[in-house]
Amino acid sequence: MPPGRPSDLMAYHRVLAGKLGPQHWWPAETPFEVIVGAILTQNTSWKNVEAAIANLKREKLLSPIAMERVSVRRLERLIRSSGYFRQKAKKLKAFVRFLRLEYGGALKRMFRTPTAELREKLLGVHGIGPETADSILLYAARKEVFVVDAYTKRILSRHGWTEEDVDYEEMRSLVEDNLPRDVSLYNEFHAQFVQVGKNWCRPRDPRCSECPLGPFLEASS
Ligand code: SF4
User: What Rg value do the Cα atoms of the chain yield, rounded?
Assistant: First the structure.
């Protein structure tokens, strides 16, 4: 058993659920909006993504067909607030092209693909790395895949579960092996860790004395 491990990650989840309440992720009206958000949020804050999504919604471009038809220039203008907008426009275009070629443009068909196979295919699309692929799988397709991010690594390394430079896949397996396989639970747990990372577990000067996970840290030392 790694140092700092009280029993399993459910203990962390229960404490955070009591402190934070339901997280209601992902903030989107449709699975396609989740996917667009997952691409746009790369290397930027969600606040910057919201403005881009609002533009796309206003211009009625939040559908695979509309997004494939819109010109790259116009798409770039509309998502400018999300940063790296030229690369992200290319990524959005690459995804909708992939969706059309592989699944006739139908997300429902894509979601019926077995999880491991779909994950491999998504990772082959330009601009989709492991975190984006897993966000799509969990939050749009509702598959049992945990989404690892920098917060997950920081929190669990500080609690002795692993090293902060742990490989993505190793971290994902570690979390999945220590939680019941449950889409809603993975959804909540990821969102809870984002809150902990934003509010308490900062890169420097973590506020452990105020953090709900403080008792677990004490148990690990
Ligand atoms: S702030 Fe401290 S107690 Fe909270 S998660 Fe980070 S290391 Fe743990």
Answer: 18
